[in-house]
Design a protein that fits this description.
By secondary structure, the protein is mainly alpha-helical. It has 3 domains: 112 residues, no CATH class; 137 residues, DNA polymerase, domain 1 (Orthogonal Bundle), CATH 1.10.150; 214 residues, hpI Integrase, Chain A, CATH 1.10.443. The chain has a 3-stranded antiparallel beta sheet with strand order 1-2-3. The protein has a 3-stranded antiparallel beta sheet with strand order 6-7-10. A two-stranded parallel ribbon has the order 4-5. This is Tyrosine recombinase XerC. One of its GO terms (biological process) is DNA recombination. Keywords: DNA recombination, DNA-binding. One of its GO terms (molecular function) is DNA binding.
Length: 552
């Protein structure tokens, strides 16, 4: 196919407006004209001609280099590959029309062989929309991905080309998020200070009313209260982008995943702490929780269950406290999977929130499908609960909503997980016990099992964990008495000289004390028996008689 380079003068006749071309008097000047290229492309399907043209080169050498580049791209398609030839021709037409740089030959070869778009014009936003539309997971997971994409990814990196996304771009994105956090905190503080000042202004008086009106107007102009993007959310944003880009690699759209290499602040998961007497005392003084995750002692758990013994959902609080079901699992547990005769239940479903709407779903993970053993007391509690539910069903009659769930609303309909949490918090506050979350009852169940020396594997299976390391890392919050026993057992393994001497002294002191106690019980040493003086005289007389006795 033909191709050439040529000089071109863009000067125009001032009268006619036409280009002067070869008649320009300055054409022979060295730097007056520019160079252009034109390369014939394979004809269209209808036989019409097309070509790649580009101008504005400062030298013939630069023009020739681009012409060779175009010919190298055309040579990527084999002669017996009409589809490849057409793709390259269409690509060159688009590059010429958009006046974008010519793509690299080797990158174009790779894309052509992989069946990808030859021009990497796909933006991050376009790809993320396409990726999200193809996900087939439960609705709550889709919503979480959609939030990450809409709130964080598309506004900050959505405009970038997918194939040109770099680690530095993501580092800048997370830096912007941290900077935005600082701004949000400052704006929240300003709005809070203005509201607090407004409270101090009296209602009475013309001046006060005018001042209040002006302050309210100023507050309305301020940004509303907003939440910052915490470290856990930033990690989730990174995980969302990483998953999406991994799929892009699998589809051979890109070859490198920058989200796998960007470094951000690690998430420090709060450790579960037990409500010891010292922590309870400090909480009563300051109202502050030592950790977001707090666990009751067995005594505190028992006090709470005694307090809510008459609550309609007592059986659910009992089941979570002893067997560690998740909130959604307890709300969605059906009677058909609860076998009280065999002392077991099978976790096979849960109720989850989508916004404020409730929907049935599978357990959180594959390990969430599990059989949970029930103790005799829990079985008795569930039997009494079933009897009361049968009575309620009879009272409601035709208005009863038959869901088949173990725990329901008064009319038999689904429980709302969010309302269950609100009810639990109100009950805890009314009990006077130190606060914990509903999910912390699950932590407490794990702690109780571990304190009872239950094997970690059994605890992990009961909780529905895929790995015992999860159980150890998250739920093994050791009770004080268990920790002390472990400390004592550990200390006894080390032979220390000072400990041996102390133990020897203790045994000697105990021996002396025992001797003194035994001596106190002999005649003359305590109450009863003969007086000490009489006993001594009797002993002396007996000894003297023995000496005077004649020998045989």
């Amino acid at each position: 196919m033909k191709g050439s380079t040529y000089r071109r003068c863009s000067c125009r006749d001032p009268k006619t407006g036409k280009e002067l071309g070869t008649s320009c008097p300055k054409r022979n000047s060295r730097n007056h004209c520019t160079y252009s290229i034109r390369q014939e492309l394979p004809p269209r399907e209808d036989g019409s001609r097309r070509s790649f043209a580009r101008g504005g080169y400062d030298s013939r050498k630069a023009a020739q280099a681009d012409l060779d580049h175009v010919r190298a791209l055309l040579g990527l398609a084999e002669s017996d590959d009409p589809e490849g030839t057409e793709l390259i021709a269409a690509m060159l037409m688009e590059v010429g029309r958009e006046r974008t740089p010519l793509p690299e030959v080797e990158e174009t070869r790779r894309r052509l062989n992989a069946g990808q778009d030859l021009i990497g014009s796909l933006t991050v936003a376009e790809y993320l929309d396409r990726w999200l539309a193809g996900k087939r997971i439960r609705k709550s997971g889709i919503n979480r991905y959609e939030t990450d994409i809409r709130v964080h990814l598309k506004p900050r990196i959505g405009h970038r080309r997918l194939d040109r996304l770099r680690v530095s771009h993501l580092s800048e994105m997370f830096t912007d998020i941290r900077d935005a956090n600082a701004q949000i905190l400052e704006q929240n503080a300003q709005r809070r200070a203005a509201i607090d000042e407004l409270v101090t202004v009296p209602w009475k008086g013309v001046d006060n009313r005018a001042r209040r009106k002006a302050m309210k107007a100023a507050i309305d102009e301020m940004p509303p209260f907003r939440r910052v993007t915490g470290s856990a959310t930033r990690q989730h944003v990174k995980a969302t982008l990483r998953a999406a880009l991994n799929d892009a690699i699998g589809q051979q759209i890109i070859t490198f995943n920058p989200a796998a290499h960007v470094e951000i602040d690690p998430v420090r998961k709060p450790k579960a702490l037990v409500w010891t007497d010292e922590r309870v005392a400090k909480w009563e003084q300051t109202g502050e929780k030592p950790s977001p995750v707090m666990v009751w002692t067995p005594q505190q758990t028992g006090a709470f269950l005694d307090f809510v013994a008459q609550d309609r959902l007592y059986a659910m609080w009992h089941l979570i406290a002893f067997r560690g079901l998740r909130r959604g699992e307890a709300c969605g547990q059906p009677w058909s999977e609860t076998n009280l005769d065999t002392h077991s239940l099978t976790v096979s479903a849960q109720l989850v929130q989508d916004g404020w709407e409730v929907e049935a779903s599978d357990p959180k993970t594959d390990s969430g499908y599990r059989v949970v053993a029930l103790d005799d007391d829990t079985v008795d509690v569930l039997k009494r609960h079933r009897e009361r539910q049968d009575e309620a069903r009879a009272e409601w009659g035709s208005a009863w909503v038959e869901t088949g769930h173990v725990f329901t609303q008064e009319d038999g309909s689904w429980l709302h997980p969010g309302k269950v949490t609100d009810l639990f918090e109100r009950l805890v506050a009314a009990s006077g016990l130190p606060p914990i979350r509903l999910h912390d009852l699950r932590h407490g169940a794990a702690t109780l099992m571990l304190a009872a020396d239950i094997d970690i594997k059994i605890v992990s299976d009961t909780l529905g964990h895929s790995d015992t390391r999860i159980t150890r890392d998250i739920y093994q919050s050791v009770l004080p008495q268990v920790g002390k026993s472990a400390a004592e057992a550990t200390a006894k393994l080390v032979p220390l000289q000072r400990r041996a001497e102390a133990e020897k002294a203790a045994r000697k002191a105990a021996k002396k004390a025992k001797a003194r106690k035994a001596a106190a019980k002999k005649p003359g040493k305590g109450t009863g028996g003969k007086p000490k003086g009489d006993a001594n005289a009797h002993a002396k007389a007996k000894k003297k008689a023995k000496r005077q006795k004649p020998k045989k």
